[in-house]
Amino acid sequence: MISRRALLISGLGGLGAFAAAGGTGYALVENDVLPGRVRLDKALGRCGDVPAPPAASTTVRRLAWRSAHRRTDVTATVVLPASNATLRGLPVAVALHGSGGDGASAVRSLALDHYLPDAVARGGVAPFAIAAVDGGPDTYWHARADGDDPIGMIIDELLPRLRAEGARTDRIAAIGWSMGGYGALVLARRLGARRMAAAVASSPALFNSYADAHRTNARSFDGAADFARNDVFAALDALKGVPIRVDCGTSDPFAPMARRLRGRIHPEGSMGGGCHDGGFWRPRLPAQLAFLGRHLARS
Q: Which residue, among 157, 197, 186, 181, has the nearest Cα to 76 in the 3D structure?
């Protein structure tokens, strides 16, 4: 048993030496005692492949403007639930992309223009629109010292534009992945139960400390004080009354913090086999979209 595993992990830093020493190192990595769990699981094929999207497809619209809150040009990629649909009368879920991405890349990489119409047409989900908007590659969806304010942009610029086209925006939902999963929680905290119908945090980028955040992405927070102001765990009461779903792969580097969050707020969703990638995110979209649709319909 050990020879195959030793071969698989022999290239993972110094872990091969542990494996050759009787499997002790393998067991320690397997139990998250030593670093390298994610790389090990990728080597063992536990991350899974990115599945092909449903055949259904739908209309995608783009809204572009010069954002006062973000001080740059911003585009929202709006996914409608059917090709003949308009925004009129539809509730809205705002989609928040991950680090290094933008609204269009979230729609494209996650095939939201396929999963949403399939969920509505075949999954019995009440129709709603998804608006995936540009939040900046590393803003972590909160107001920054340089004046960039992606959450302010959503509330004061995106939602009024959607409302002007007939969408229902008095109560909205949010869904995000990685940095955007954290952002969905930040938006839910900002709006509260009165305006937030539901939030989905998929593999949310949550950190135990500013030092951890800085090591992962030096641009994620402006400093320790900025981290403290925007620490989701420091203001969990602000999420009370908001239906929340949290999903995360057990081979995801953010899995320990996702477990901690799940233990504190007891949301829907689950920890399951998978990594921090589309192989985990896409298969969960049908259930996540159904969750959003159910709560938006109640609004």
A: 157
